[in-house]
Amino acid sequence: MLNWDDISREYQSEIENFQMLNTPDERNVRAFLQNCALELHERQTAVTRLYFDQEDKLVGFFSLHNDLVKVSPSLILEHRWNLITEGLTHFPAIKLHYLGVDARYRKQGVGKYLMEEVRSIAKEISNYSGCNFITVEALHSSLTFYRDRGFKLKDSTAEFHNMLFSLETLDNPTLEATPLISKQKIQEIRDKVMSVIEQSNLTYAQVAATSGLDEIVIEQMEFGTDVDVETLASVCQSLGIRFL
After folding, report:
1. Are strands 90-101 and 47-52 parallel, antiparallel or unpaired?
2. What CATH code is carried by the domain that includes residue 71?
3. Residues 152-155: contacts with CB within 8 Å, 24+ apart?
4. Does 130 have pLDDT greater than 60?
5. Do 160 and 187 fall into the same domain?
6. pTM of the predicted model, to two decimals?
7. Max Cα–Cα distance, the chain, nearest Å
């Protein structure tokens, strides 16, 4: 169980000490928290919540603001969303502007916990004001995380994957629980993946493209960086490797 509070100047030292990986995507998230989040919060443009563990260590945050998203009838039909399509092209939403987990607290379920908090807030808002979706501009390195949390791809740019989570799915959950496997098993699967990549003479860019991940994620796997189950499953599927 994590504790939370709105961002304020009181937490400036904790914010300055917030650590993320040294990649362009993660530097972007950290820069937002340290340089923009407080001002936007004070102006009521984007509300930021800070989450702390039992020792009052800042472990993660997210920022939300209102949104209006254009959704094509074909996308609605594809995912069987219960929406009125005649005469409507735009729908109310809550935008997940940023979400970040301190690098020292990864693989502990913090990201999943924050996402559940976001869903709960959006669902509560929908009880008082029309709201159909949670939207996010997912950075390339976080595509798998959001996809495995039920977000659907709307479109992509060079910088982002625009994704949607339909709030109606909270009443009809279809997501499967992440399997629990040991660290040893994860390491065995990772080694097998790297072996197949080497034997097949595939580049990391090729693997990233077929698995829907960022190239930096594949590089991190080579150097033994901790990798989550969802990422491994995506790479295995793209390479035709049996996951479990």
Report:
1. unpaired
2. 3.40.630.30
3. 152/75, 152/79, 154/69, 154/71, 154/75
4. yes
5. no
6. 0.70
7. 56
